[in-house]
Amino acid sequence: MDLAVRGKVALYFDYQQKLQIVKNPLIVVEDNSIVDIGTFNDKKDLISGHDIVGDENQLLIPGLVNCHTHLTMTLFRGLADDLPLDIWLREHIWPLEEKLQATDVHSGAKLGALESIASGATTVNSMYWFPSEEARAFAESGLRGFIAAPVITGIATLPEAIKDIENHHDTVDGRIRVCLALHSPYTVTIQDFKDSAKYIKDYNENTSKPELLLHTHLAESKTEMQDSRELNRKHNLAFPDVSTPTEFLNEIGILNENLIAAHCIHLTETDIQLFKNTRARISLNPLSNAKLGNHMPPVLGIIDQVENVGIGTDGPASNNTLDLFDTVRFLALYYKGFYHDPTLVTAEQVFRLATIGGEKAVNWKGIGSLEPNTLADIVTINLKKPHLTPNDPDDAILNHFAYSMKGSDVENVIIDGKLIFENRNFIDQNVDEAITKVEKIAQRLLSKD
Ligand SMILES: [Zn+2]
Predict the structure, then answer these.
(1) 183 CA distance to ligand 1 middle (Å)
(2) How remote is the CA of residue 69 from the centroid of ligand 1, in Å?
(3) I want to staple 382 with a disulfide (CB 3.0 to 4.6 A). Which of 230, 324, 337, 411 is the partner?
């Protein structure tokens, strides 16, 4: 059934990067696309036969884009916190992951997908193992996004990853895409990086499908260069004469438009220029960076200079939620405090990063705006709440988005033209069952036998 979405106000960036505000809006959705947007009075004749979603209390925004996470890690949420990254990974997360079965990944990712949708994310870029299981979770939940075809030297090979790409890229009505996921410069050798980049270049030059991206963690820890040198030395591979992880990726031919790099904490001014010049893509994940004590990325330089930049939650074991509103608020607040300057990282900038910035960061045309002829990924937010009042002035609504909205304010979610979440309830999903499955898996993973 085609949809007509009503609200008090609609807020979005158009493709000239201009903020648009439509009062008393009506969005007309047909099939999986937005075909029109305007005021209710101007457009109401277009909607006979359409199901009405929303009411006069709703803010209408594009679905949020979570540019970097690990959906399945809902399984490990809250099991090991307040620890350094290295100890957290090596002593807690990796031993639990060794006990994982394929179906566990489906259950973890499914709960993560439902949590994402219920808090307003409609596109999610997830990096994990067992791509078929994550794909099943995306397909069943209605979420749009990327699963990973993983490559880790000595553990997961490029030929295996290519099979995952062939099986899942641009499937389920185009709702699922695959990133070639090379975990990091300290777990993947130069040779594997180069072979993967060559595969992606050839693929993108010869396909009619959406272009493939290479997804990696970059410049997340202080010891990354040293660890990367050590890994490549063990494999008898010459390491280039570079001083930062970004220079390293540039030197081996990875830093280009096919790359989405998560974190980018330890970036120099020169590194930021390299991102700018190569148009490589960035997912900022400031809440995870803060929680793991990994320092904070140079966000001011990045959002000022780098065009293709969005935000992500990172996995729910290092954040600990998939609610992007948490990340939005933290990002808008942190740098003001750190630099003693309340004008830094504005409400408009974080709204851009969470919507059309995300579209650019993951290179998926049409997911981050409400313009006609874009994909119908629409979120409505109930403004009739104490913490979102008053909301008549335009500025107030944008400020509420940055400083007082929460994922739990999301009222309706439409993905690819389908109403998935209505009046805060899933239409076709059993959330209790998804929670119970994850509880049981966590109990098994933590048991001593
Ligand atoms: Zn991550």
Answers:
(1) 9
(2) 6
(3) 411
DSSP string, 321-359: ---HHHHHHHHHHHHHHHHT-TTSS-HHHHHHHHTHHHH
- 262 Cα to the center of ligand 1, angstroms: 7
Ion ligand 1: residues, Cβ under 5 Å: 314
Ligand 1 centroid vs 218 CA: distance in angstroms?
Answer: 9
Per-residue model confidence as pLDDT tens digits over 343-390? 999 999 999 999 999 999 999 999 999 999 999 999 999 999 999 999
Instruction: With CA atoms as reference, report the closest residue to 39 among 55, 22, 16.
Output: 22
Round to whole Å and give the CA distance between 12 and 351.
8
Instruction: Tell me the CA–centroid distance for residue 413 and ligand 1, in Å.
Output: 25
Q: How remote is the CA of residue 173 from the centroid of ligand 1, in Å? A: 27
- Ligand 1 centre to CA of 37 (Å) is 36
Could you read off the pLDDT of 63-78 as tens digits, one per residue?
Answer: 999 999 999 999 999 9
CA of 404 to the centre of ligand 1 (A): 26
Which position has the token pair 């030059």?
Answer: 205
HSE of 219 in the Cβ direction (CA atoms, 13 Å)?
Answer: 27
Q: In DSSP terms, which residues pair with 415 in a beta bridge?
A: 418
Q: Supply 321's token pair.
A: 């939620």
Domains of the chain: 3-63+374-424 (2.30.40.10), 64-362 (3.20.20.140)
For range 221-241, the mean pLDDT: 96
CA 169 to ligand 1 center in whole angstroms: 21
Consecutive H or E run containing 159: helix 158-168
Predicted TM-score (pTM) of the model is 0.98
Q: Parallel, antiparallel, or unpaired: how do β-strands 259-263 and 213-218 relate?
A: parallel
Ligand 1 midpoint to CA 318 (Å): 8
